[in-house]
Design brief:
Elements (H helix, E strand, L loop, with lengths): L10 H12 L6 E6 L3 E6 L7 H6 L5 E5 L2 E5 L4 H14 L8 H12 L1 H13 L3 H20 L6 H13 L1 H12 L4 H12 L7 E2 L2 E2 L6 H20 L4 H64 L6 H11 L4 H5 L1 H16 L4 H15 L4 H11 L1 H22 L4 E3 L13 E3 L3 H27 L2 H8 L20
Helix pairs in contact: 1-3, 4-5, 5-8, 6-7, 8-9, 8-10, 9-10, 9-11, 10-11, 11-12, 11-17, 14-15, 14-16, 14-17, 14-18, 15-16, 16-17, 17-18
Length: 486
């Protein structure tokens, strides 16, 4: 079957056009966004998703239906291009606009308050991940140059470029938070900027002087939430003639004073407790904590509960320069890789499944685990559990060294697998940190492989493997790979 796009149509546009009718058409789409690997669609009626052909569409690596949202796994790079084209297609249809806000709100209500809150947290922090990654890599390069004594004239400039975003991350968090919770983004940013303003050192709250940055991203998040609430209250009570002057002034005043005389102090205490708890957890119960976190992370991802960890990671990065939790959690992907290789070796006659594994393994090694999870281990059942065992072993390995005082951290969130190496940081030098992380990956690969090879391939799994279709992976150009079926 020829799946090449028509002349004059880009591969991303062709894939977006193929996706649209399978999710219910433009009128069913209430929001369009993406993360590192997934196209995230808010839907008015999730039951209109045509799941089977959507999963089989060339270029689609997986599908997650969660409440009122549909997450289509497309892979890094290609997801951004497809999202852009998908947004154009939905915006061009006049039926997509009427009632969109009402439908989106109904979808959030139907999904439950906890799920809706987690999705909103993700909407605040996920857009910041590209800047965290870029600045994290530059900070790592700058650290290498400083340690080696190279290019002393360039390192101050690199320091400024790499550190500026983290110094002002509170403003971006506030901007996104206000927009997500129904306020004016720039007012949320203005109130959150108070958290990092140097002049707060002259303000005394609860008998002590505040310090710039006190409360961090949690303070910025809470301040912007308060600003959005105050703004909405004003909008409903202020006459239109005065709204443009009165509402912004009252919003900034009330939320700003609340930030100075309550939020910064409380959020600062919570942020300090998060940092202390994370360090204590790994230093005291490192191997056990790593075992639990590495083994349970993928189930948490599938339930969407991992989104609650995003502010924790951001707080640790802001406080300590790196998050010690991410390298442990990244071991979950290593277990998936080891399990997939074991399935590949054991099921030599299942050509379709082996094709899926070959296409998904490179992405898995680079930390993009969805193709292996949704295309291999989860449909087979037991290999998903043995893969989690591999992740638990890798997490225990990294946690064990944390107990010995060797902390392994990441300066940004998002990447894992081999892609996390440029973002590693720790308290023992880059060489030791990278060696411990590599040892964790190898442990995860080995245990995931051994557990799956020995216990993960039963007769029932073999029967299930025969029913798993080959997943089409993106080509190097970002176009969907041609389907092997006719």
């Amino acid at each position: 079957m020829d799946t090449s796009p028509p002349n004059g149509t880009s591969p991303a546009n062709a894939l977006a056009a193929a996706l649209l009718p399978l999710v219910g058409g433009p009128a069913n789409v209430t929001s369009v966004a993406h993360c590192m690997t997934r196209l995230r669609l808010g839907l008015a009626d999730p039951s209109r998703v045509d799941e089977r052909p959507l999963r089989a569409l060339p270029g689609v690596l997986g599908l997650v239906l969660d409440g009122g949202t549909c997450q289509v796994v497309l892979g890094p790079g290609v997801v951004g291009r497809v999202t852009e084209e998908f947004g154009k297609l939905t915006a061009a249809d006049p039926l997509a606009a009427p009632g969109a806000e009402e439908r989106e709100a109904r979808g959030r209500r139907d999904a439950g308050p906890a799920r809706a809150a987690l999705r909103r947290l993700a909407a605040v922090f996920v857009p910041l991940i590209p800047a965290l990654i870029g600045c994290g890599i530059l900070a790592g390069v700058n650290g290498l140059l400083l340690n080696a004594g190279l290019l002393p004239g360039l390192t101050p400039a690199l320091t400024a470029v790499a550190a500026a975003f983290m110094a002002l991350i509170a403003v971006f968090v506030g901007y996104n938070t206000a927009g997500e919770f129904g306020g004016t983004p720039v007012l949320g940013g203005a109130v959150a900027a108070i958290v990092v303003y140097p002049g707060v050192a002259k303000v005394t709250a609860f008998g002590v002087h505040l310090s710039p940055g006190q409360g961090g991203v949690l303070g910025a998040l809470t301040a912007a939430l308060l600003a959005a609430r105050v703004e909405r209250w004003c909008r409903g009570r202020v006459p239109d003639a005065l709204d443009v002057l009165f509402t912004p002034a009252v919003t900034v005043l009330v939320a700003g004073l609340g930030t100075l005389y309550g939020i910064m102090y409380a959020a600062g205490a919570v942020s300090a407790a998060i940092g202390t708890a994370a360090n204590w957890l790994l230093a005291t119960t490192g191997a056990f904590a790593g075992l639990v976190l590495g083994g349970l992370f993928l189930p948490l991802v599938m339930l969407g509960l991992h989104q609650a960890l995003i502010p924790v990671h951001a707080t640790l990065i802001e406080q300590q320069g790196y998050t010690v939790l991410l390298p442990v959690l990244a071991m979950a992907g290593a277990g998936q890789v080891g399990a997939a290789v074991a399935v590949y070796v054991r099921l030599r006659h299942h050509t379709s499944l082996r094709t899926t594994i070959r296409s998904a393994l490179p992405a898995g090694l680079l930390g993009v685990g969805e193709p292996l999870v949704y295309g291999v281990s989860l449909p087979l059942g037991r290999p998903f559990l043995t893969a989690c065992a591999g992740g638990a072993a890798g997490g225990a390995f990294v946690g064990f060294f944390a107990m010995l005082g060797d902390r392994v951290g990441a300066t940004a969130i998002g990447p894992s697998g081999w892609a996390l190496f440029p973002l590693l940081a720790g308290n023992r030098g880059l060489g030791t940190t990278a060696a411990i992380y590599a040892g964790g990956l190898l442990t995860g690969y080995a245990v995931g492989f051994a557990a799956t090879y020995a216990f993960g391939v039963t007769d029932r799994v073999k029967a299930a493997a025969a029913a798993v279709p080959a997943a089409a992976a993106p080509s190097a150009s970002g176009a969907p790979a041609p389907s092997r079926s006719s």
